[in-house]
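Structural prep section.
Before we set up the soaks we want a predicted structure of the protein with adenosine-5'-diphosphate in place, mainly to decide which crystallisation condition to try first. Input record follows.
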Amino acid sequence: MIQLTNIEKVYRTSTIETLALNNINLTIRKGEFASIMGPSGCGKSTLLNILGLLDQPSKGTISIDNQPVTSYKDKELARLRNQKIGFIFQSFHLINDLSVLDNVEIPLLYRKGDTTGKSRRELASEALERVGLSNRMKHFPSQLSGGQKQRVAIARAIVGQPEIILADEPTGNLDSAMGSEILSILQQLNNDGSTILMVTHDEAMARKTHRLIRLFDGTQVADSQLVANDERL
Ligand code: ADP
Ligand code: ADP
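Run finished without errors. Recording the tokens verbatim:
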């Protein structure tokens, strides 16, 4: 579904050059739930941004559904991103003066033609139902607990029915009970067919996914299928 070949990412400032990713080869298959671990600064966010078409690699190719997209222009990348990818971040990134429902509708506003106000509201309430927040639609983010905010962010990520969900430390700001709750929602989405890639610092959480990819200093040092995969199937 997403294939990275010989990906290299160099960040250059006037004085420093950082090799953030060094020759990464990675295939994310449809239906997978994979986690990415590694020490701070090893390139996890960079990798997720490249997979999510938010950032371009310095070298190498990215293919989505066997179609190389490395030469696409920003506008085409944005369209593809909007169609296929949902993002979840550690710090939620909700808009505080919009209601929960309005926050979840945001990705649909960028879709051409296909959504009226009514259908946007319907899709957003369905997404909120899937994360168990139907009873909070009119609330504002400041009225929600951290776990609830992250569930709103998940609803926003899935409202456009993306094929893949990229989550950058989705439980990093949550206590372990809320973190487990978020993980079970992600597992449910994966069971329903979403492909999920999650960066985490939590080894126990990573071990509940199908596949564990480890980075160190920009290099992929491990890629293991986990037993949990067979247990779950
Ligand atoms: P992680 O997510 O694993 O903490 P990052 O992908 O954020 O790692 O960063 C990888 C390396 O690239 C780090 O050394 C970081 O300092 C550097 N880096 C990340 N973003 C930038 C940037 N925009 N400009 C310069 N260096 C960056
Ligand atoms: P949790 O028990 O998950 O930590 P909180 O204790 O923060 O959650 O909140 C309990 C409930 O009260 C939540 O369902 C939340 O929606 C609601 N709530 C929290 N803060 C406010 C607020 N300022 N205004 C309205 N409702 C709130």
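Observations: The mean pLDDT is 92.
Flagged for discussion at group meeting.
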